[in-house]
Amino acid sequence: MVLLIVLAGVAAVARGLPAAASGLRSAAAVDSEQHRLAAAARSILGGSQGVYVEAADGTVLVAQNEALPVHPASISKVPTTLALLRQFGPEHRAVTTFASTGRVVAGTLQGDLVVRCDGDPLLVEEDALLVASRLQKAGVQRIAGEVRLEGPLTFNWQPATDGAPLRQALAGQTRPAAWQAVQALEGIEESAPPGITFIPGLTVSDSSDSAPTALVLHRSAPLLALIKALNDYSNNVFAHLAEQAGGAAAVENLARSVVPQEMAGEITLGDGAGEDPSNRLSPRAAVKLLKALDRELAASGHKLVDALPVAGVDAGTLHERLRGPQEAGRVVGKTGTFDEYGASALVGAIATARHGTVYFAILDHDIRAVRARPRQDRFVRVLLSSLHGQDWGYQRDTRPPFARAQVEVLRH
Length: 412
Fold this sequence. Notes:
Low-confidence stretches: 1-17
Radius of gyration: 27 Å
Shape: elongated
CATH class of the largest domain: Alpha Beta
Oligomer: single chain
Helix content: 25-40%
Order of helices and strands: HEEHEEEEHEEEEHHEEHHHEEHEEEHEE
CATH architecture of the largest domain: 3-Layer(aba) Sandwich
Distance between the termini: 100 Å
CATH topology of the largest domain: Beta-lactamase
Largest sheet: 6 strands, antiparallel
Mean pLDDT: 91
Number of helices: 10
Number of strands: 19
């Protein structure tokens, strides 16, 4: 009887050995993987540079100078993206209203065209031509007045201090390519663009004290589409967008709140685009911010590829990088470059079968981008090879933001 019990116990132990041995082998494999990746980081990037790689479950695969805050350049746009999405939501549309201060008589607006701006960061010539067409449908052919701005206007990627650039575009004085794009969008055959005639030296005052009458409403493309377009090219209009999210201090406070407490001091944001010399991020804080952005996007059914450029696929800063046969479409990320500060960075994510999404941050300092970028790409290639990176299954939306805008005539 005793012998049977002992034999049963031995058999039970024997049955447990494969599982235990498998666990040990799995832990050993991860440990070996970590050593290989750490060695690659030192060899390729240099031991003084910061790099941090973390799997979806929190497993740290590489940690080199991970807590060292350095200038992140345009990686600063990642927390700004998070702040904008959290405050407004991905479907938010900025509204620009075109209103008149006077009556429209025989095709002439007898007064000023008031432009109420709601913060659209991507109002461009094509949008102006669409608005001019709608103004004409509202009966406005000529304006005996000025273009008056209410609120900050960003036009053609630049802050506009007055209405002159917009007025010129409303008059049809744009690049030929802008009109061709509108023709293709709307199926227009006319060779000449719609143009509102501004009558120089003639201002007809309206005696009415009533509020301006809205004529045309322009709703931008959804916020997520705008963010995607701006991140693809790393446009510094983000600095003005940060103001809409409460300013750089508010973005910084949000960023610090979504990372572990011990990392909060590794985040400093003097602006939301990456130009301020005081901006600082550590590699591990950058990864935590990227993961927070991923969670924010997932809450509305979106992914990182909907907000950040995909290497080798999207036009912009990552179009010519990591575009080989086993690379293109497998890395989503954000670049950062500011040679004056010696800052060059690449943060991003890779989809893997074994570790789920793997997030990485390479924050180089005291090195010019021309030297740093090839090294960053080499290390990411090691990640793709070692972790068996998979295609994100991303299909680029080739429509420009103006094609996703809504332009409505309010008064006929």
